Amino acid sequence: MARARSRYAPDRGLTGRMVGTMFFIGLLYVVLVGVLLAVLQGSWLVVLVVVGGMFVAQFWFSDRIAAYGMGAREVSPQEAPELHGAIDRICALADMPKPRVAIARSDVPNAFATGRSEKTALVCATTGLLRRLEPDELEGVLAHEMSHVAHRDVAVMTIASFLGVLAGIITRIALWGGFARNSRGNDPAGALLMLIPLISAVVYALSFLLTRLLSRYRELSADRTAALLTGRPSSLASALTKISGQMARIPTEDLRKAEPYNAFYFVPAFSARESLGRLLSTHPTLEQRLDQLARISSGLSRP
User: Any idea which residues are catalytic in this one (predicted)?
Assistant: First the structure.
C-alpha cells in the first residue's frame, strides 16, 4: 500500500514547472541525439549506447557523486545528536520517512539535500552552518531541504542538468576534435559535422536557461512550504540573513570550491562582489526570499 503524501503543502506551480522542464528537456534530448545519429550514421549503435549509458549513470549515481564532491559524511545519532534531533522533529511534523543524515566539514555555512526519492534521500549540513545557527534557525533550514525531498524536485534537477552537461561535453569534443578543419572545402559530410558543435551549443544554452528558471522557483517553493510547515517563517528568514551575511566573509578559495554545487545549496556560494554570478544564480535574490517570508509571517499572524 502506497504511503500517504507528506504534510508539506503541495505546490502546483512547482509541479507544472517540473513537468514543463522535463518535456522541453526531452525534446532537446531527442534533437541532440537525432543530430548525432544523422551525422554519425555508421556509428548509430555506439551513439545510443554511449548516450544511454551516460544518462543511466547520471540518474543512478549523480546524487552520490554530488554528495561525495561536497564532502558529505553520514553520521549516527550518537555523533550528531542535535542534527538528528532536528531532522527527527521535522520528519514527525511532515509525516515523512527519515532521510540519511550527513555532515560536511566546511566553514561555508550551508545545507543541501540529494537523492532520487525519499528512500535514497540524504540531508547534509556543513560544520560552518551548525556552528553559526540557533536551533530554531537550523530547523528552518532543514525543513527547507526536506521540502526538496518531499516535492522530488532534487531528482528532476539532476535529470534536467544532465543534458546541459552532455551538450557541453559534445561541444568541447567537437571543437577539440578539429571538426572545423575537417569541414574545409565543399565536402557535404564536413558541413554536417559542423552542425554538431552548433546544435550542442544551442542545446546547452537552452537547457541552462530551463534549469535556472526551475531552480529559482523551487527555492522559493521550498522556503514557502518550510515556513508553513514549521509555522516559524521568521526563523527561516533569520537563517537566510545570517548565512548570506556570513558568505562574504568566507575565503574566496572556499567559495570557488563550493560554487559548482550551488544548485544543491540552501544559499549560493557567491561573494558580494560577484554580480555576474548573482545574475546567473540558481537561486532568487535574498530580497525576494525575505519578502515572501514576510508575507507568510503576516498571513499567519492574522486571526
Answer: 145
Tens-place pLDDT, residues 185-209: 445 555 555 666 677 677 777 777 8
Q: Which residue from 71, 67, 80, 89 is spatially nearest to 235, judged by alpha carbons?
A: 89
- In a domain, residue 1? The reply is no
Taken in order 221, 225, 230, 231, is the CA torsion positive or negative? Answer: positive
80: left (phi over 0), alpha (psi -120 to 50) or beta: beta
* Alpha carbon 161 to its chain's center: 8
5: in domain: no
Task: Tell me the binding residues.
Answer: 144, 148, 219
Q: Which residues are annotated as a binding site for Zn(2+)?
A: 144, 148, 219
- Alpha carbon 231 to its chain centroid, in Å, reads 25
- Per-residue confidence (pLDDT) for residue 273, from 0 to 100: 47
Kind plus residue range of the DSSP H or E element containing 271? none
69-83, 112-126, 187-201, 221-235: which has the minimum mean pLDDT?
187-201
Sign for the CA dihedral angle at 25, 28, 34, 35 comes to negative
Query: Longest Cα pair distance anywhere in the chain, in angstroms?
Result: 77
Using alpha carbons, select from 123, 113, 143, 127 the residue that is nearest to residue 235.
143
**DSSP at 41:** G
Asked whether residue 2 is assigned to any structural domain, the reply reads no
Classify residue 7: in a domain, yes or no: no
Q: Range of 148's domain?
A: 12-187+197-303
> CA–CA separation, 142 vs 262, rounded Å?
16
List 79, 134, 137, 145, catalytic entry:
145
Alpha carbon distance 222, 234 (integer Å): 15
- Mean pLDDT (the chain, rounded): 82
Report pLDDT for 172: 64
Contact (Cβ atoms closer than 8 angstroms) between residue 161 and residue 191:
no
Give the count of domains, the chain: 1
Q: Edge-to-edge strands of the sheet including 111-114?
A: 72-74, 100-104, 122-126, 111-114
